[in-house]
Every structure is written in C-alpha cells, then in structure tokens.
Design a protein that fits this description.
about 230 residues; 3-stranded antiparallel sheet; 10 helices; about 75% helix
Length: about 230
C-alpha cells in the first residue's frame, strides 16, 4: 500500500482522486473483514490503517455514511454497522432483485465465451479441490472469493446500467461484511459454492433464462440461510 506522500504524488486528479482512493481503501477493509461490524474506529486510526491523509478520509466519510457503510457516533468516532437480521435480509433481498433482473440481459448480451470461461474455471476449481489434498486451502479460498465477487459484478454489469451497478456494489460490500463475520469458509463450503455456481452457469451458457433464474435463486437462498446461522444440504 502506498504511503501518504506517494498517494498525493500519484493523484493527478487532486483532492477528488485522493477522496476516491481513501474510499476504495476503506471499502477494501470492509470487504475483507479488517473493519468488522460493530467496530468503532477514529478518523486518525483510519489515516494510519489506509495510509491516506486526514482530509481525504474526512471527505470520503459522508459517502460511506450515505451508503450505510459507516455511522458517526458523536464524540466517539465512526462505527461499522452492526449485523442484525434486518441488515442481512435487506442486503440479500436487494442482491436477489438485482441479480435476477440481470438474467435477460446476460442471456441476450453477454458473449458466450465469457460464460464458458466462468464455467470452465469453476469446473477446474471443483476438480482441483476434490482431487488435490495438498492444495493451499487459504490461497484457494481467497482466489475463489475474488473470482466470485468479480463474476457476480460482471453479471450485473451486463445490464449496462451504472446506477444499478453502483447500488449492487454497495449491496455486495454489505454481504461481504456479513460473510466475513458470520460464514466460516471451509473446503466443504467452497465445494457447495462451486457446485451452485456451476448449476446456474450451465443453463446460462445454454441460453435458458428460467433455469438460470431458478438455480441462481437457490444459490442466493442458500447463502442467506448460512448468513443467518442456518445450515444447508450440500
């Protein structure tokens, strides 16, 4: 991560670029659970953690507050929202609405080669996870998470609607906050996620919107159940 001086030098757009960089670094902390639900942190601590300037942090905070990702506590600092049932259900409900709405555009617009690459990646990951007991599980699981995030965002991106994509991005951060705090990522859980992805990618490649929607809906339902502390069948 660049230090503050380097960040200033690398920001030809001036303060707007610094504000965006500060926002992105806080977003990264939320995505990976380095800022946890219910945690209270000061602006000065964010400066040290992100290696950004205090002014850039202060300018990024209103946007994070408006998106429901941080809350200001007078005379105490900033708090990451606590996870309650409403927070989790609303995030997953928004995810469902957006992702299922994207399916017609996916089927009509997205290059089949892209879908084929997604499917091939998951098939290879499934085979590797099943047959290779020496795989570095932590690296594998992190790669799976990152691929998962990018794939789902690309699916929504097929709608070519920047407003929807931004709402989805914020929703995805909230879901990742939930997952990092409440979902134990294991080999078995990874196998389940990969299988569920393959289940909706296969009909997506074939151009079947109804079957894609059914499998994707099940995937979201399973994820919500686990986030709420329930169990699902593999």
């Amino acid at each position: 991560m660049k230090d503050r001086a380097t960040a200033r030098q690398a920001s030809p757009g001036g303060e707007n670029s610094l504000r965006q960089l500060a926002y992105s670094r806080i977003e990264e902390l939320l995505n990976w659970g380095r800022l946890r639900p219910g945690q209270i942190i000061s602006q000065r601590e964010l400066v040290e953690t992100t290696e950004m300037t205090l002014s850039a942090i202060r300018e990024a905070i209103p946007r994070l507050e408006a998106e429901g990702l941080l809350q200001t506590l007078p005379q105490r600092g900033l708090m990451v929202p606590s996870l309650d049932v409403t927070f989790i259900r609303e995030a997953y409900q928004m995810r469902r609405v957006i992702e299922l709405s994207a399916i017609p555009d996916l089927i009509q617009r997205l290059d089949r080669a892209v879908i084929r690459n997604w499917l091939d990646w998951h098939t290879a990951a499934r085979d590797r996870l099943t047959s290779d007991e020496t795989v570095d599980l932590q690296i594998f699981l992190r790669d799976l998470q990152v691929y998962d995030w990018h794939m789902h965002a690309s699916m929504v991106g097929a709608m070519e609607n920047s407003l929807i994509s931004n709402v989805y991005r914020v929703t995805a951060i909230k879901i990742r906050m939930t997952a990092q705090s409440r979902v134990r990522v294991t080999r078995d859980n990874a196998k389940r996620v990969i299988a569920e992805h393959i289940a909706f990618l296969t009909p997506m490649l074939e151009g079947s919107a109804d079957a894609t929607a059914q499998a994707l809906s099940r995937h979201i339902d399973q994820s919500l159940t686990i986030a709420l502390g329930g169990t699902v069948a593999n």
